[in-house]
Automatic annotation (TrEMBL):
<comment type="similarity">
    <text>Belongs to the eIF-2B alpha/beta/delta subunits family.</text>
</comment>
<dbReference type="InterPro" id="IPR042529">
    <property type="entry name" value="IF_2B-like_C"/>
</dbReference>
<keyword id="KW-0963">Cytoplasm</keyword>
<dbReference type="InterPro" id="IPR042528">
    <property type="entry name" value="elF-2B_alpha_N"/>
</dbReference>
<dbReference type="InterPro" id="IPR000649">
    <property type="entry name" value="IF-2B-related"/>
</dbReference>
<dbReference type="InterPro" id="IPR037171">
    <property type="entry name" value="NagB/RpiA_transferase-like"/>
</dbReference>
<dbReference type="InterPro" id="IPR051501">
    <property type="entry name" value="eIF2B_alpha/beta/delta"/>
</dbReference>
<dbReference type="Pfam" id="PF01008">
    <property type="entry name" value="IF-2B"/>
</dbReference>
<dbReference type="GO" id="GO:0003743">
    <property type="term" value="F:translation initiation factor activity"/>
</dbReference>
<dbReference type="GO" id="GO:0005085">
    <property type="term" value="F:guanyl-nucleotide exchange factor activity"/>
</dbReference>
<comment type="subunit">
    <text>Component of the translation initiation factor 2B (eIF2B) complex which is a heterodecamer of two sets of five different subunits: alpha, beta, gamma, delta and epsilon. Subunits alpha, beta and delta comprise a regulatory subcomplex and subunits epsilon and gamma comprise a catalytic subcomplex. Within the complex, the hexameric regulatory complex resides at the center, with the two heterodimeric catalytic subcomplexes bound on opposite sides.</text>
</comment>
<dbReference type="GO" id="GO:0005851">
    <property type="term" value="C:eukaryotic translation initiation factor 2B complex"/>
</dbReference>
<protein>
    <recommendedName>
        <fullName>Translation initiation factor eIF2B subunit alpha</fullName>
    </recommendedName>
</protein>
<dbReference type="GO" id="GO:0005829">
    <property type="term" value="C:cytosol"/>
</dbReference>
<keyword id="KW-0396">Initiation factor</keyword>
<keyword id="KW-0648">Protein biosynthesis</keyword>
Amino acid sequence: MWWRSASFILDKRENDIATHPNPDTLTLSSPPLSMSDTLQNPNPQNTNISAYYQTRAAHHGVVTSDWLAQAQAAVGSQPDDVLALETDVKVAGNAFSVIDEFNNWRKQPDLAEAVAAIRALAAVIRNSKATTMMELEIELKKASDSLKSWDATSISLTAGCDLFMRYVTRTSALEYEDFNSAKSRLIERAEKFGEISYKARRIIAMLSQDFIFDGCTILVHGFSRVVLEVLKTAAQNKKLFRVFCTEGRPDRTGLRLSNELAKLDVPVKLLIDSAVAYSMDEVDMVFVGADGVVESGGIINMMGTYQIALVAHGMNKPVYVAAESYKFARLYPLDQKDMAPALRPIDFGVPIPSKVEVETSARDYTPPQYLTLLFTDLGVLTPSVVSDELIQLYL
């Protein structure tokens, strides 16, 4: 089970109609296929393409129109079990749906998926018709389960929902208040938790500024909102630095980040992913985001992060991680395969023989010994103290 910790510092539907004549039948359990999948096997078995990666592509990817259309079509569909949960969590006597609320919040480009889930759960409390605390907690639990089922591979989404439940209903003292007062307190806590989570990115940006010095070269991988905020704040503080962006195949998230940095007049150089070792001698530090920070102090992030950290470690370059504390997960992976897979469609642009297997994993695990510091809204942490922070926050 995924968990996440909070900061206490501050108070698409387009697809091949010939293949899917009935759009209503599209589900995540039967996603549209990429070009390489079609070429490899004319009658392939269904493969679960993670909503985690579809959403990432839809919001951050600079990709071919065909690939993006496939991702958007898959995002627009939901599996039958999620649809069933969505029906179950509709507030009694009302048309409110937590999934609809979540999707509305998720449309904001600068809002993290986990924060969107927190906002949606807060709306469940406001719209609830429950008359007792037990009924309200049951509704919240159903809403949380529905959101987590929307994409079971998303670390921050699942952790955010779990921590919201702990933070909002953390004391039994509510049982001794009248229901209206208790509900008002729950709403107040929910809004507070949402604000804390939303401000986390800004806190991290401020904490990291002392580590970015004039004349430095920073290597980044993929598109991370919090890393972009760190670099944007440094540029606003008139610091002089340049950035190397990896392309970030297959969705080319590095292209998106390089475009955003160019708008800030930050000198930026785009690298193909395989040029990391070649360029590392010019780099002063590596800055990456994280999809999850695990109990060992390591991180789970976009595929390629592990090899970048290995190269940087071998060349004595510091590797910094910028991650909101709600991405802290009570998980202890032992190797690359010891975590829930998040798959992605891959189009190589050329025919692939049917006998050739294609790796479709979207992320990898970087052990703590290859990381230097983690910049979080809890403070600047070494990997070794992550487990201590988890214990303090959850106990």
